[in-house]
Every structure is written in C-alpha cells, then in structure tokens.
Amino acid sequence: MDNFLSVRDLRVHFPTPDGVVKATDGLSYDLAKGKTLGIVGESGSGKSVSSSAILGLHRGTSAQVSGQILLEGTDLLTITDEEMRLRRGKEVAMIFQDPLSAMHPYYTVGNQIGEAYRVHHDVSKKAARTRVIEMLELVGIPQPDRRVDDYPHQFSGGMRQRAMIAMALINDPGLVIADEPTTALDVTVQAQILDLLQQLQKEFNTGIIIITHDLGVVAEMADDVLVMYAGKAVEYGPTKELLTHPEMPYTWGLLSSVPDLTADVEEKLVPIPGTPPSLLSPPSGCAFHPRCRYKDQVAGDLCVTQQPDLTPGSRGPGHLKRCHLTDPTVPNEEEVAQS
Amino acid sequence: MTVTDAAPTGPSTATDGSAPLLDVRDLKMYFPVKSSGLIRRTVGHVQAVDGISFQIESGGSLGLVGESGCGKSTTGRLVTRLYKPTDGSIHFEGRDIANLGARQLKPLRREIQMIFQDPYGSLNPRHTVGSIVGAPLEIHDVVPKKQVLSRVQELLEIVGLNPEHYNRYPHEFSGGQRQRIGIARALTLQPKLLVADEPVSALDVSIQAQVINLLQDIQREFNIGFLFVAHDLAVVRHFCPEIAVMYLGKIVEIGERDAIYQHANHPYTQALLSAAPDVKQAAIGGRRERIQLQGDVPSPINPPSGCRFRTRCPFAQDICAAVEPPLMQIGRRHKVACHFAGEIGHHPAEPVTAPLLGVDRHGDPVPGADRNTDIGTDSGYSDTWYDFPGRRIVRDESA
C-alpha cells in the first residue's frame, strides 16, 4: 500500500510553566492522492496543531514534535529547515480560516499570490503575474486581469477565500490542508467554496485534509473522517460508514447534539454533558469518561483506569474506534434522553 | 388604535389573546455614511433595515435568518431599542416604543432583554458573576439589597451553574458557562421578550445543544417571547415555530416552520436551504442538488431597484427591476415577497403579482388598472390570502 501521506504516532507537546500540554498525542492516519480526509473535533482537540505539524510550523518553537510524517516516503520531521522550506507551499499548502488576517493588507492580492509562485519558480515578475491571473480566473474571480491589482480589503469574504485557494494551489501541491476554510463565510458562499475545492481537487488530483467542527461539511466533502478528542483520534473510518454507524459515544454525542433540517422538532437535542477536558491534566483512562453516558455498561472501572486502544469496529477493519464498549451500536435515543 | 399604559405588571394571562406581545411595522434603520475630510458631509445611507413588519406572540418565538449584512442583528438591536429607528413603529404590549427617550426607556429595559453572541466580550472581566447577574436588580431597585445575593444564586441555579460560584470572575468559566451567565443576567428582571443574537454560534458543537435546551426550558417555564437571530438554519428550525428570512434589509419570506422549510416559495429561501450542509442527508444519499447563487450580496448603500434579490436570482425578469414585490400572504401563516413565487420546480413563467399590482409582465403600469394595496401591508396574518397556484383570493373558512 503506497500512501501519499502517512502520519504515524504524531505527538505535539508544548512545555508550559504549569506542565506539558499534550495537544496531539499519538495520532496516525493515511491519505491517498486525490482523496479528502476530514478531521473533526472541538476547539482544543488538537486538530489544527497536528496539521500545522505537517507544514513544519512548529519548527523553531518550544514545541516537542515526535513520530513520523511520511509524505511520499520522506519523513518531514527529520529533514532540515531548508528542505522543509522548499517543500512548504510547493508540496504542502494551507488554506486558513480567516482570509482577511491571513493576507497582508499592504500588498495587492496579485503581489502576494505571485510571491508564493516566485519562491518556488525562477520566473520574472511579469511571468508570475500572468500565472496569477490564470489562477484567479480558475478560482472564479471575475475580471482577474483587473482584480489582480486590488488589495485584500477590496475583495468580499468569499472572493478573499477564493484568492487564498488560488495562492495555495498555484504551485500545484500534492497536499492541501484547509483549516476551517468556510467557517467565516455565509452558507451560500460556503457552498460555492466547497464546490470550488471539489472541482479543483478533481482537476489537480490534490489530497485534501479539511479541518472543521461542522459535521455537515465533512459529510459532503470527505472520503474518510477522523474524530479527535483531547489530542487523540477516537474514531476513524470511511465517512458514510462512520456517520451512519458510529461506534464511539463521543461521535454519537456529536451527531445527536446538532439539529438537522429533517429531524422531529418536538424531540429535544441530546447534548454531551460537561465540558471538554484540560489538556494539562487529561482525565485518567479514557479521556472521554467524565462525559460518557455509557461507562456503566463497561465491566468494572475499566474506563477510568485504562486507556482504550484504537481497535477495529464491528463492521470491518477500516473503521477504528477507541472505546471499551463491547456492543458498539447507537442506543435508542429515547433511552439516552431518559438516562 | 387606543394605547393604554395600564397593567405593566401582572400575569400575562390578562393579555388579550389577539394582541401580540410585539408588533413591528415598516421598521427602517438607515445609518449615515460620512465623507472623509474636515466637513463630514453625509454622502449616503446604509439601508440596514428597510421597512420590515412582523409580530411576536406572548411566549412565541420568531427566528430571523439571513446572511451577514442582511440586517438581522440590527433588527434585534432596534427591538431592544439599542438603536433609535429611522422610521416605523415598534409596539410592545400595545405601546409604541420606537421614539421613547432614555428616561422613558428605563422601565422598558425590564421587559425586553438581550442575549449576546460573544460570551467573552459581553461580560465585564473585572466584575464577579454575582455583580454581573445582580446589577439589573440594583439598577432597577427590584429587591432589597439583602435579597440580591439569594436571587442571584437562584438565577445561577436556573441556568445550571453552581450557585456557590457567585464570587468568581468570568475568566474562570468556559465558553458555555459564560453564555449561561449571560442568560442568567438576561433573566434577572423576568423579561417578557428576549432578543437572542446568535446565542450559540460562538460555542463548540457539544455545548450548543446544552444552551439550546436551556433556552427552551426557560421559554416554556417563564413564557418568554423570543426573537431568535441566527444564521444556522437547523438551529432556528429547532427553536422557532415561526421564521422570517431576511435579505438586504427586507423580509423576503416569513411563515410557520413547515411553510418555510417544506414549502419555501422564495428563490432565496430555497437557495439558502439547499446550501446548508446536512449531516444525515449527506451521509445517506450523498449530496442534495444545490441551487448555486452567483456572486455576492450587493451593497446596502445602493441596493438594486425593485426586488433586491434580482441580481442573483435565477428567475429574474424585467418586472423584478421595475417593481418591488410586496410581502404578500399566500397561505394561512405564510408570506412571500416575489413576483415569481412558487415551490422548487413550480415557479411560474408569468409574474403572479402583476394583476394585483396593476402592471403588465414587464412591470409597466397598465392604464386604468387598480393596485390592490390590501395585501401585504399588515404585520400579522389575515383570514384571506392570495393563492398563487390558483391565482385567486382565498378565505380561511375555519376562522
């Protein structure tokens, strides 16, 4: 099996005066070329931190990164800073959540996108400009030969995000990390941007990691989903499979706590009780046990004392879950509401 | 209309069933745009809210949805009178509050309260939770000083916080808990109307449901009317039996939950609904067919003539630029503002509104034709409405 990207036992720890924050703690996943992985989790679950490690953004900080990030066979954690710099933007690119703060307000959009191109290509400014206009046209910006000289504030939110996508794709990278790419956008614009990403993915055969808290976005975009909780993967599998037959109480909780457009409105939402744990002193055993409604169904106090492993679920080896429960089917929602 | 100042307190059962708690008519809010330079002349107006009408029953809840910049938050702030409207009326319990001065507004603050979006920005970091929640009691001198603490603790318990935590500071709480503090503060004076401006959008998914359930419990227990401003269509559908969809300062469609979510007639509502990602549908049968809207929302400083949605509307014709479609009642509790209103796949080829407005299919006035002005002027619903597919006026027999 030759995977385009393989992350193995990735750990990102931040030493602080109060102790070590284990933001990402033993994360493994694979991504094939041209496929999309959705990483879902709440704020502080480590989803952004683990992805910025792929770009080498923790280099030069106090963060301790260990494990393996294999991109086409090369471990990105062992190469030099200079080698990383040559790959950043060319082989791995990032689309940020807030395009207004990700762009420099004093430079024109064309200038900034062109810079990303000229870092990796020895071309004249004029040639870069032509290429930028091509890219702007590709991402659907009207009158690209005129808008190329605009400043970021002259673009609307949706257009800025299109420009960000143009910047990320201008070097035709094999992997694009999109960190909450549509969270700051309105739904109709979000739909435009997601469609654009999918269309460009087909055209360039790009692998995409989409980081989001919105299960709806994941359901529409991703081939595989990784659910993160307290720095660890708690469930991982093909999107359709995972969303229709989740096998981990945290995923059940996420799915039952969001209202959807077809549910019975008389039924109350079933929230996950409590709050996300502190990463400085995560709970013993399963990190989710203080909020879990089902720990009584596990014999003894296994959930409190022993960290469950990521094991294959009941429906095949492709679907992994981190839970001690032996009967991993979604319980009746009414029972949940009463418990 | 006779206006009385009587009965400001007392049980709400005394209120006449026909009179709504809140009746907003033709509300407008224009913010001036000043030129730069020494003499800051007004060079234009942002027409944030431009003539909207709606009603909220006592204990009812109206959801206000739309994209950023459509005027939904401004509407919330007008109802709480944080802004003074440019024009129009806001009748609260039968009394027009649109033009009251600061002194006259103070007693009103007890009745209408607000829950803000950002639980970090809306609590003073230097005050304890006790003084934040208790401040309204002292300002309005509702209970003797000695009883403030016990009332604060009672409120904290209602919103699911530990009453012993009254002397902690906001930073000691998580986002969800802070939002509960904001809710406790809003409940302190036992208001009759709560304006909730994006109350859950800043919260994590697993916490959102906790806060939505809390708001529902509170609404049922205290019979509070809600104006629920949000962009999340699924959250609004869950919370509100009635929904208004706004676009560029206007209500384009308003109606009961089913009318909006099952039988949307306005192309914008349909596009908005089709754009919302939905977990269950995407997980089972792949993606729904999306109605793609082209481009962005136009500027509210210089909105398009006629129908404001026409620049992005797939059905727009000449009449849409010439005549603004009125918000017409098309069902028992369903109004829509569109010349080509119809359910998805059933949009008419000819403008259905033309005969009522006395214009031809291009929007030019027909000599001698009357404009039927009765439809679409009232803020509530009437017993008669215009049935679009049948092109006739219908009377509700059950009424």
From TrEMBL, chain A:
InterPro entries: AAA+_ATPase, ABC_Ni/Peptide_Import, ABC_transporter-like_ATP-bd, ABC_transporter-like_CS, Oligopep_ABC_C, P-loop_NTPase. It is found in: Cell membrane. GO terms for molecular function: ATP binding. Pfam families: ABC_tran, oligo_HPY. It comes from the Bacteria. It is a peripheral membrane protein. Keywords: ATP-binding, Cell membrane, Membrane, Nucleotide-binding, Transport. Residues 7-255 form the ABC transporter domain. The keyword ATP-binding applies. SMART domains: AAA. Its main location: membrane. Residues 309-339 are annotated as: Disordered. Belongs to the ABC transporter superfamily. This is ABC transporter ATP-binding protein.
From TrEMBL, chain B:
It comes from the Bacteria. The keyword Kinase does not apply. Coiled coil: none annotated. Keywords: ATP-binding, Nucleotide-binding, Transport. Residues 33-273 form the ABC transporter domain. Pfam families: ABC_tran, oligo_HPY. GO terms for molecular function: ATP binding. InterPro entries: AAA+_ATPase, ABC_transp_ATP-bind, ABC_transporter-like_ATP-bd, ABC_transporter-like_CS, Oligopep_ABC_C, P-loop_NTPase. The keyword Transport applies. Belongs to the ABC transporter superfamily. This is Dipeptide ABC transporter ATP-binding protein. It comes from Nocardioides deserti. The lineage of its organism: Bacteria, Bacillati, Actinomycetota, Actinomycetes, Propionibacteriales.
